[in-house]
Design a protein that fits this description.
binds cobalamin; alpha/beta; 17% strand; Rossmann fold; single chain
C-alpha cells in the first residue's frame, strides 16, 4: 500500500531546494508526498497529516531556528491523537555544533529521526522503508543504505 508522507519547511524558513529534491526522490521511490512548501506552521503540518491520514511527517529547516520553531510540535500531534512518524533534517543549529548534541536535542523534542545537512535523500528513503516496513522495489534490493539517524 502507498504510504503518505507530509513534507515541508517549518517556521519562517524559505529554503526550498532541499525539500524539492526530497519530494522528487520520495515520489520516485513510491511514496505519496504532500509537499506543503516553505514557511509552514506547526498547525499546517498537523492539519495536513490528519487530513491525509499520513504515516510520516518530514520537517525541514535550514536557517538555524529549528529548535524554536519545533517547540511544542509533538504536544500538538499528541493533542489530536495522531499516530505518525516524525523526522527532521537540514541545517538544524546555528554554526558548527557537534551534530550528536543537536540530534539528542531534537530526539528529546520528540522526533523519531534527526538528519544533518549532508543527508542523501536515499538515506531518508531507507529510513522510511525500515520504519514503515516497506520493501524496496525488486530492482533496488541489492543496494544497501545504512541509516544512523
Ligand atoms: C540558497 C541559500 C539561500 C537562498 C534560498 C533560496 C531558496 N528559495 O531556497 C536565500 C538567499 C533566499 C537564503 C536566505 C537565507 N539564508 Co540561506 N542559504 C542558502 C545556501 C547557500 C544553500 C541552501 C540549499 O539550497 N542547499 C542545497 C540543498 C539541496 O541542500 P539542503 O537545503 O541542505 O537540503 C538537503 C539536506 O539538508 C537534507 N534535508 C533538508 N531538510 C531535510 C529534512 C529531512 C526530514 C531530511 C531527511 C533531510 C533533509 O536533504 C536535502 C537534499 O539532499 C545555504 C548554505 C549551504 N551550502 O547549505 C545557506 C544557509 C542555509 N542560509 C543561511 C542563512 C543564515 C540564511 C538567512 C537567515 C540569511 C539572512 N540573514 O537573511 C536567510 C533566511 C531567509 C529565510 N526566511 O529562510 C545559513 C543558515 C545558518 C545556520 N543554520 O546556522 C546557511 C547554512 C549559510 C551559512 N553557512 O551561513 N539562503
Amino acid at each position: 500500500m502507498t504510504k503518505t508522507v507530509i513534507l515541508g519547511v517549518i517556521g519562517s524558513d524559505a529554503h526550498v531546494v532541499g525539500i524539492t529534491i526530497l519530494e522528487q526522490a520520495l515520489s520516485a521511490a513510491g511514496f505519496d508526498v504532500k509537499n506543503l512548501g516553505v514557511q509552514t506552521s506547526q498547525e499546517e503540518f498537523v492539519e495536513a497529516a490528519s487530513a491525509h491520514d499520513a504515516e510520516a511527517v518530514l520537517v525541514s529547516s535550514l536557517y538555524g531556528h529549528a529548535e524554536q520553531d519545533c517547540q511544542g510540535f509533538h504536544e500538538r500531534i499528541l493533542e489530536v491523537d495522531l499516530d505518525v512518524l516524525t523526522y527532521i533534517g537540514g541545517n538544524l543549529a546555528v554554526g558548527q555544533d557537534d551534530f550528536e548534541e543537536t540530534r539528542a536535542k531534537f530526539r528529546k523534542l520528540g522526533f523519531d529521526r534527526v538528519f544533518d545537512s549532508e543527508t542523501d535523500p536515499e538515506d531518508a528513503i531507507a529510513a522510511l522503508r525500515a520504519d514503515l516496513d516497506v520493501r524496496p522495489p525488486e530492482e533496488e534490493r541489492d543496494e544497501r543504505h545504512t541509516v544512523s539517524a
